[in-house]
């Protein structure tokens, strides 16, 4: 099990389309990639990433053996998104996942996106 766990959710207008481009860039940096369609797992020497694309956001969960690897993997993800996305996200907010199972998507999303999603559900 990884000692350093964190999650981030990034709102992007065309996240599903961008996810492939981001995945290709991250895949060049990792040891192995497991592709499950809209969920991909990237295995690094000192950590891993589980990333999922949803309608308008990408949820990323990073697990690493040490703090340096954790930050390096997160920076690689952020740089790939900035490189591929025409409109960069306003911010990346990483929260600690502390050995817990993946959080429900609403708990990781910024409040304004949760409100928007609640309004658009019928």
TrEMBL record:
<protein>
    <submittedName>
        <fullName>Uncharacterized protein</fullName>
    </submittedName>
</protein>
<keyword id="KW-0614">Plasmid</keyword>
């Amino acid at each position: 099990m990884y000692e350093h766990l964190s999650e981030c959710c990034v709102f992007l207008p065309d996240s599903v389309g961008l996810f492939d481009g981001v995945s290709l860039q991250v895949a060049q940096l990792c040891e192995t990639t497991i592709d499950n369609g809209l969920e991909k797992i990237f295995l690094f020497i000192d950590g891993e990433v589980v990333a999922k694309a949803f309608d308008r956001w990408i949820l990323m969960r990073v697990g690493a053996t040490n703090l340096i690897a954790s930050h390096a993997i997160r920076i690689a993800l952020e740089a790939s998104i900035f490189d591929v996305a025409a409109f960069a996200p306003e911010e990346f907010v990483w929260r600690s996942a502390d050995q817990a199972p993946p959080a429900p998507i609403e708990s990781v999303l910024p409040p304004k996106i949760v409100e928007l999603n609640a309004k658009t559900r019928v």
